[in-house]
## 1
Amino acid sequence: MSSLNFEQLKKDKRVIEAKRLLKEALREAQENIVEVKEANPDLVDTYNQLLKEAGRLRGRDLFFPYLGSGLGKGALVELADGSVKYDFISGIGVHYLGHSHKGLLESSVDAALEDTIMQGNLQQGLSSVELLRRLVDIASQGSSRLAHCFLTSSGAMANENAFKAILQKKSPASRFLAFRKCFSGRTLATGQMTDKPEIRAGLPTVLNIDYLPFYDATQPEMSTHATVKALQEHLSEHPGEYAAMVFELIQGEGGYYPGETEFFKSIIQILKENNIAVMIDEIQTFGRTKDFFAFQYFKLEEYVDVVTIGKMAQVCATFFTEDINPKAGLLSQTFTSSTAAINAATVILDEVANGGYLGEEGKINQYSLRFIGHLQQLSAKYPDQLQGPFGVGAMIGFTAFDGSMEKSKAFIFKLYENGVLSFVAGKDPTRIRFLMPVGGVTLEDIDQVCRIIEKVLM
Ligand SMILES: Cc1ncc(COP(=O)(O)O)c(C=O)c1O
């Protein structure tokens, strides 16, 4: 018998029975969520008032008129107007196991039993150690030198922490390199790096960043040559001034552009010769290729110095090598995350590691192939309406019509009305993109979503 009182509480028969009853009640509540459904006319007025109120209180209307009821089933989600939709964007890549997952219900009950809601600098629970152990284990496989992991509560903060650790180590070097069309977050520093002028409109410059063209799959050699040349020009213009280059190996917000191993290696070789750190932003890509990390998928393990993750992991994190480990006092936060998020992260990582998600035959690749196959057929059938598909693994998208922002937005709103949640990415062209909830989706869901896409295209 464990001597810890908390262990006794978790094993208490009433707690075990309560969990069983909760799961049973959830299963029953989900029985009516089986397919896309229109809104309930009796709820529409109240729903619209709530939307208006949300917009007024936030100072800006919500992008989609989406207010969740609190219940869903896999890829399907019930909204507070009684409608049911396919969630193929999952909060931009967050709800990886789908809606109302019973494993996450259980881990949230475990979290609710704990004495505090949040964990942080002065209050880490056992679950934080569990999560850290798993994360470092996954990140340090093969020839990777990633030995440490610092938890945090947003992708932008994971990147901020990465920038600070790098800058401290590489001081007085303070410039960064990044790819055109990259996304890094919306804080002062990450917003500076994000290659989207509108998100830093009116803000002062806090970091010096120089951009390189990203890989162009239509002309691999020329594109590698052009990027290497641009890199060398920057290096000769600012010798010794660069601390790091930040890589998004598959550009997400930029429009679903995957890079390529030899392209990355050509750049990394020069960075290493110049003592410039290699930082990989995997906030969107983590858990979405057939390997846990995209740097593993592109076979770059031995080169990475710093890596950040977020989104599907629920808890965000900055991984770094022994060499980059910062001095005491540089990284600290009141909150690292809620216990519920930390427990959920562990459940999700275990599910991906042991649930048949990874590798050629794994769910991620198989679901991706199914989705790609349908989109290829649609592209052949409607060449003027759909070009693509583009992307890798669970990051799949296409260009609709002329790829203008206006028509792409109109398209995703039409998809929304027809019961599918998607989003846009990139500019010139803007693409329609999906981040399906890999752990909650079925092949039939993918088929059904593609039928709806076809209906909207026609
Ligand atoms: C590549 C990348 N980096 C950083 C971020 C910022 O993450 P967050 O929105 O959690 O701050 C995002 C968010 O979309 C992202 O896609």
Note: The radius of gyration is 23 Å.
## 2
Amino acid sequence: MKILHTADWHLGKKLYNKSRHEEQVQVLEEIISITEENNIDVVVVAGDIFDNANPSADSQSLFYKTVKRLAADGKRPVIIIAGNHDSPEKIEAPHPLAKECGIIMAGFPDSKASISSYGGNFEILRSGEGFFELKIENVAYNLRVILTPYPNELTLKRIFTAQNLEQEIKLNLNEMWGNQISNFDENGVNIMVAHLFCSDLNGVEPVEGDDEKSVRLGPAGVIESSLLPDGLHYAALGHIHKLMRIEGKGYPVYYSGSPLNYSLREERRDNFVLIVEANPGMVTKVDKVKLNSGKKIYRKTFTSLEEAEEWLLANQDIWVELNLKLTRPLTSDESNRLSKIHEGIITLNLEIISELLEAQVSVIDVTKSPIELFESFYTSEREGRLPSEELKKLFSEILDREEEL
Ligand SMILES: [Mn+2]
């Protein structure tokens, strides 16, 4: 059985007010092609579908068009959960319609998929709070899925007895997963799809994008991988934007990462989807497939305007944070020219450095007296200003004292 794992689409996300919609259209098109070319049996999207709880009409339309095509008009199950950026109610609301197209959408860790045939090519044989078993036509084994959409504070309070204690909530989650997995034996493929902040046994916490909201799982904090249930073939995680394997279980636990570079912290990072081959009684195989759509984010520093322009002209199809260290401010003509030659400048930081410093920085004349050397050091540190007579006197005094010792 071949499962395609993706997450963190963040539809509608902007970069310094620049729209990423076109790139999102392209990368989702690429994911649809990968799904078709690799004869994928099931697609899972592990949360953070949208960048915010009130997505624009453009983002919603892109989402529905994409998942309908991924589902190949009901032939291929597509399983979608809510992340911390999504509204769980809104992710679940279209379920009655989505179901007809073979799409399963869950907003809460205790959501229950209805037992019926979905889209015509597969059916849910049984289901309970946060899990179900799926029979897909022409696939030898049944797929059993545990769904853990991001549980916010309200949801945790509603479904668990523990109210605030991080440790108790973790135990509650562990117990819930234990109960869910107890419904499955070894004669099928068992997976988990979750939007969590998960760390390995050593408590190594993955680093997030710098603008991820509430990086930790609200009151549950960091979930150590040891708390995940045993007896799975694979755990498909969402939340971290970087492709990452979390160690500590007898089966692969992965973050697929986001399909695009979304923040400066994700500078020039490659983005992937994962193709998971899982069968009962066999070791699960995970292949990463690199995505080629979308612009990478760069952070560049130049000390000459000419060099910066040359580089910008040669590197057009990217986003760039441009840092200039120049000896004078830019004229308005120059700054207009910069934005004309490159559309992807997300922010421009200009630092004025002193020409004097430039001239002196590389030459240290050791034949100079200590006080002269102090003067040029002070000048270079203080943007060309000379030390006061008082300060020079103090420096000489310290120098004399040193010599006395
Ligand atoms: Mn997230």
Note: Confidence is low (pLDDT under 50) at residues 210-214.
